[in-house]
Predict the structure.
Amino acid sequence: YKSISAERGNIFSADGKLLATSLPSFELRMDMKAEGLTKTVFNAGVDSLALQLSTLFADGSKEEYRNKLVQGYHSGTRYFLIHRNVTYPQYLQVKKFSLFKLGQNTGGLITLQQNKRMYPYQLLANRTIGYVRDASVNPVGLEGMFNKALSGKNGKRLYQKISGGTWVAINSDNEI
């Protein structure tokens, strides 16, 4: 079991306006050695997957994505990087893409979630709302004063070590 960080709580103003929140950001990876991702399955879906990724992220052509995916497949990478800093709406779309909709064991989609602290009003009252950083910086404002309540309790997820020393989550849900 490995620890999963709790999502930090929100801070609202007296009239109910959101002052601080945590938004999920995803890193998309692909297990090119997934059991069901045979050469036939991969070749049948790689072109449409490349087109869908290039259309969604608009940071490369279909051919660039296809070449990247084919190269990753031939190298047999377990945690092949597809894209970083993916928003939640983008993540929902990606789950419906050609190969990825087949599931983790066949399509190979692996998602790593990180939460980023966001302040909708940016610098407005930033010292009052405050922040909590690492141990070398003293906590400030509401974030610092109510740090324990806002932090929540960490969860746990079951992982398994696979070849190459890589740790992979057994299932996509938190255990605790």
Q: What stands out?
A: The radius of gyration is 20 Å. The first helix runs from residue 39 to 57. The first strand starts at residue 2 and ends at 4. The mean pLDDT is 88.
